[in-house]
Amino acid sequence: MKETSFDLDAEIVELTPFVPDQQTGTTAPLAELAFRADAWLPDETLRLRAAFADDCTLEEIATVLGRSHASIATRIYDLGLRRNSRRSWIAWEDEELARCYMHEPTATLAARLGRAVSALYARAQLLGLSEPGSPPYSGWEDAQLRAGYAKGVPVAQIASLIGRPFAGVISRASALGLRHACQPDDWSDAEMARALTLAATGVPYVVIARALASEGFPARNSRSLGQRLRKLGYGRGWGRPWIIEEDELLRHAYATGASLTPLRERLGRSPHSIRWRAEALGLRGTHVRRDGFRQGPVWTAGEEARLRADYGKVPTRDIAKDLGRGVRAVLYHANRLGLVHGFMRAFSAHEDRAIRNAWTHGVSMVDVAHALGRDPAVVGKRAARIGCRFNDPARPSRGPRTRRANRTPVTLQSLLALNAAAAVDANRSIAA
Questions:
Q1: Which residues pair with 311 in a beta bridge?
Q2: How far apart are CA 217 and CA 199, in angstroms?
Q3: Kind and range of the H or E run holding 370
Q4: How far apart are the C-alpha atoms of 369 and 377, rounded to whole Å?
Q5: Confidence band (pLDDT; 50, 70, 90) for 425?
Q6: Where are the beta strands (DSSP E) in 197-264?
Q7: Which domain of life is it from (predicted)?
Q8: Residue 2 has pLDDT above 50, yes or no
């Protein structure tokens, strides 16, 4: 099978000629790219690859190509070249490593030196640049660990006492086979039943642990208590699957228009969990009070009709002012209705043609934006993308583009008919 290469020669500037559509008009010419004096030429890249394959140092490659160390190292990194040799370190690399190590990311420094990250770590250790590892635990520290775990002292306090990190203390205790006094395994049936009874009341785990200790059960912390309750199948609503009985209670609340707050407390669910389950069951929007039990006024059919008609065409602040609501309330309700802002919708082929006609016949961009129901800045960006710049200094013959304040309002239909009207005038002039 013949191998296909997708690398283009430097002389190629066009892959295929482009013929513009006569209906849509001409497009903007290709922009010229400024030449960079430090750009890498194909011949230089080939010489760099050859020198790198010969295991030349960065200093030698920089001397041959007449470039700096940083430029050579960056190009090697961009090309994805990696060394597999065991070349020795030179004085310049050691100086650069000593100067920048621990002050910038090791991966960046490795890319500049053209070496692997592991090689930098090994060299830094030989030069004494690496931080020393943690000293081994002494007999005194192990004794404090054993005494603290036996007495149920919090691990954070033990770590502060002996001057070790929290994770290191837990790791050392695990290696010694220690188990904290607040996490014993001797859970009795009576203790588990009492813990479940207290958890059903909704009190925090810290309060439950204190209540169990006051009743004569072993002292435990809130973390071990929560882990044990989750093993028993109890949860506070997070991640707990919904059962059929809970779904029926939720449907009944929506059917009767009851408040969802008592249901959340009864099921032990969060408001977000209730909303998510209602949407999954198709109950969203079926509640008698569509806006819930909020304090704000209920949206009427006339207000929603006004919102649907003007959203995206009239500034949101003006809509909120006319409706007597806040801007955030208008945005939230528009989202509930599934409305998309007009300034964010995609441009159609008719709108693009209207922009081209307006640009050709000298219509103001503000009038075009008003006709399309969009923001002038959005119309200006779209016009530039399709090759129509309304404020192009290279077209002074067009004259200033003034707004049509005292004329007939500009509409999408009038903009689309501009080419047809110009053609009729041209035919009349020819006939005359």
A1: 314
A2: 16
A3: helix 365-372
A4: 9
A5: low
A6: none
A7: Bacteria
A8: no
- pLDDT, tens digit, for every residue of 18-45? 666 665 555 566 666 566 777 888 888 8
**CA–CA gap between residue 54 and residue 40 (Å, rounded):** 20
The ranges assigned to domains in the chain are: 42-127, 139-176, 189-232, 301-337, 349-426
d(CA 202, CA 190): 19
- What is this structure's pTM? 0.29
Rounded to whole angstroms, the Cα distance separating 38 from 60 reads 19
Q: How far is CA 98 from the centre of its chain?
A: 37
Residue type present at position 163: G
What region, left, alpha or beta, does residue 266 occupy, with left being phi > 0 and alpha being psi -120 to 50 degrees?
alpha
List, in order, residues 6 or more apart from 142 with CB less than 8 Å away.
172, 176
Structure tokens at 1: 């099978």
Q: Are 64 and 47 in contact (CB under 8 A)?
A: yes
Widest Cα–Cα separation across the chain? 113
Asked if 62 and 71 touch (Cβ cutoff 8 Å), the reply is yes
